[in-house]
Amino acid sequence: MTAHRQHLDRLWQRGREFLGSDVAVMGGAMAWVSERTLVSAISNAGGFGVIASGSMPPEVLREEIRGTRALTDRPFGVNLITLHPQLDALMRVCLEEKVGHVVLAGGLPPGGAIRTLKEGGARVMCFAPALVLAKKLIRSGVDALVIEGAEAGGHIGPVSTSVLAQEILPEVGHEVPVFVAGGIGRGEAILSYLEMGAAGVQLGTRFVCATECRAHPRFKQAFIRAGARDAVLSSAVDTRFPVIPVRALQNEGTRRFQEKQHEVIARFDRGELDQKEAQLEIEHFWAGALRRAVVEGDVETGSLMAGQSVGMVTREQPTAEIIADLVDQALAALRRRDPASE
Ligand SMILES: Cc1cc2nc3c(=O)[nH]c(=O)nc-3n(C[C@H](O)[C@H](O)[C@H](O)COP(=O)(O)O)c2cc1C
Fold this sequence. Notes:
Bound molecules: flavin mononucleotide
CATH class of the largest domain: Alpha Beta
Largest sheet: 8 strands, parallel, barrel
Number of helices: 14
CATH architecture of the largest domain: Alpha-Beta Barrel
CATH topology of the largest domain: TIM Barrel
Structural class: alpha/beta
């Protein structure tokens, strides 16, 4: 092992120990994308795959966990959406199936969820969108945090990864392992977040075009063609009708969403809809749209959730090669700084 590799391994040692993986790179859960083949491929390549449970009912999740375990004996995690109406049953499935790490996403976890999971033997990770919430989650007993900046694909907060990292890592990076996500496409960026005190990183967009990823070929093609500026934010057009901002590739669907909001709000202003009906109609616009794009390949009107790092996705590649490239890029950066200590 080279001196540079030893240095890198020291930098992400806490993350590796926490995850039980060779490299502290998590494959961020992506609904419909992060199923057994991609998750196991990431874990088998030395990273840490995470199943996206999305809207799965509990027994489907159980099958996915078992299916993943049949493909890897390395550790992997499960991502649960806290707004899921069957969250308790999903947590029970994770504990019964002895999932080592559960990532709670989609808002602060309901009271007791962290304790239930920990008492059941799982390690719990949560997303911290701001420093005060990071501290609150640590007080609630969370084992590790993910901080995800606005560069990321999917549902996002307003603050960039670089700012979140500066605000949160120096304050709580020594208390629990913190994994940085959003906009990471290369190893040099991984190295710099580790040097800022991160325990590891989480990447989503970069893994979509992994050979083992079962996303539809048209979904992958859209990623390969797109540049950073194509991954845009779709947000509310009127503050009276808030929507959770989503970063996705611009397409007919994102254009129609703008029109839809204007149309619904005009009907509300004319008194044809009440507030709740209008809000629901806006929210329902994207129902099933990610599945349509990922599974059926409807890249025109489906949701092409993608982060700005999509510009660094240039071809389909085996998962192991993607992870090896990230590690090589981090090592090359160390080598450039200090060529003598090879
Ligand atoms: C298509 C897609 C679907 C996603 N679905 C989820 C999800 O179900 N749960 C979740 O916590 N994060 C989800 N994310 C976020 C990823 O887990 C990860 O944090 C993010 O992609 C990291 O930023 P990056 O895209 O810049 O690498 C999704 C991201 C994408 C691109």
